[in-house]
Prior knowledge:
Blueprint: H1 3-12, E1 16-25, E2 31-41, E3 47-48, H2 54-60, H3 63-84, E4 89-94, H4 96-101, H5 103-115, E5 122-127, H6 134-146, E6 150-156, H7 163-167, E7 173-176, H8 178-181, H9 194-203, E8 207-211, H10 216-224, E9 229-231, E10 239-240, H11 241-251
Parallel strand pairs: 2-4, 4-5, 5-6, 6-7, 7-8, 8-9
Antiparallel strand pairs: 1-2, 1-9, 1-10, 2-3
The structure holds guanosine-5'-monophosphate (2 copies), manganese (II) ion and sodium ion (NA).
Amino acid sequence: LSPLGELAIAVRNREFIVHYQPIVELASGACVGAEALVRWRRPDGSLVRPDLFIPLAEESGLIMPITDQVIEAIIADLAALLRMDRNLHIAINLCAGDVTSGRILDVLQDRLSGARIEAAQIWLEATERGFIDIDAARATLIQARERGHMVVIDDFGTGYSSLQYLEGLPMDALKIDKSFIDTIGRDSATSSVTPHIIEMAKTLDLRIVAEGVETEEQAEYLRERDVHFGQGWLFSKPLPAGEFIRYYQNAK
Ligand code: G
Ligand code: G
Ligand code: MN
Ligand code: NA
């Protein structure tokens, strides 16, 4: 069986589950949400990381039913918690196809209203990498914000995210790529870029999420510069749903 054939069977058998990586408000240390990270759970129980199947899923179109399964998993795992705490949010990764087609917004509206979850509780992370049709992407992101979602530009600072490119995009937050956070406290060519990335986000009046925070020194640096949110191993690795719920309840 080809890799694509295997992936198609996995979609049919609903083998996709979600782990949740906590997102922390840096000033208070409170957990305010989590990023949903898909995993393929094979019948033998092993977990396949997304970087090994998302590219094939995207080019074949199987990403659409996978994204639907991610949304359904979030609801099955966390609807009760999300109804109990309206300040809790979950961030979902969208690929270029999701963003250009816009179909995902109707899926979300349908599933969220059925589960009595507010659109504001779901943040949408989009990478500028591979927005093929920028006008269609812009239209989807505008509509997403109208419906109450927060729009986050993921992997900020890498690839094509020039200021000119970002200027026309509707967005609420930037997620600074781990490669920039890694340089904090190190003497490297990119470490001088990191403060400018932060300043740029502030100039655009956007919220900032720092990704890949691993040390207290990095967290302190980000706090000093009023970066709002942090995510990374310093706080927690991605967790299975039950463990995330426990983490969240203990962190409160
Ligand atoms: O922790 P981790 O290995 O889960 O994440 C690897 C990559 O996979 C990240 O770049 C992340 O953006 C991507 N990813 C994780 N979950 C999803 C998902 O549900 N949909 C899409 N399109 N990408 C995802
Ligand atoms: O969507 P995105 O590409 O941003 O996905 C985040 C990826 O980064 C996931 O693979 C996640 O497991 C990983 N990650 C999150 N926090 C850390 C961290 O502190 N250190 C490292 N090395 N990886 C992290
Ligand atoms: Mn992401
Ligand atoms: Na990222």
